[in-house]
């Protein structure tokens, strides 16, 4: 498990990116419909084995890994054990662990979610849904050295249905971004910009650039490069050198359906990492 008093997340993010020379984050979404056949028959254990092999193959090119909780929870109780095994593999590789569950609730419920992800599974960061307001984000900011990546402007086509709504003369996503940063406790202001991060889709580079201008020190988690159509060069230009992780899942995980899946994943990760330098 990670130290109970780790360095600020922003510092550890910078160190992880510097170590591999790229802000690549590899998403781990073990979809039974796309796994190579030998791993499908193994159920949750097969999914874990697949992800562990991908972690081992791609770790030289990735600053972080992002398991998507839904793909593990779908296996039932065995899925939690599989997720724990994958998290352990990421920690052994010495890479940042981002758990993508998009949790968000108030009070003790939110705290139990945060405890499960940060303490139980050892996450360095999580994804958080802010729809219930600041008190649904706050529990995820109570763990020193961890980061809550709040859903601000997502890459899916329907994201604009709510995120672009005008609220007091500005789009809702900008209000959410400020809410996330301001939710960091005043008594621990040194964590501001490190404990609260933004999820910003790669498919909206102009929007990403605007958020970066307003929040130069906030870590961004950027999905959507690869299968969703986001362009690495556009993301880097829009980010203007700010702290960032750029996630790719399917384009790396499923680079080959055959026995060479790990080698193909490594090649795909190396290619994207090179384009993110």
Automatic annotation (TrEMBL):
GO molecular function terms noted in the UniProt entry? orotidine-5'-phosphate decarboxylase activity
Pathway(s) of this molecule: Pyrimidine metabolism; UMP biosynthesis via de novo pathway; UMP from orotate: step 2/2
Q: Which SMART domains match?
A: OMPdecase
- Which residues catalyse the reaction? 102
Can you tell me which family this protein belongs to?
Answer: Belongs to the OMP decarboxylase family. Type 2 subfamily.
Q: Which PANTHER family match?
A: OROTIDINE 5'-PHOSPHATE DECARBOXYLASE
Designated name of the protein: Orotidine 5'-phosphate decarboxylase
Source species taxonomy? Bacteria, Pseudomonadati, Rhodothermota, Rhodothermia, Rhodothermales
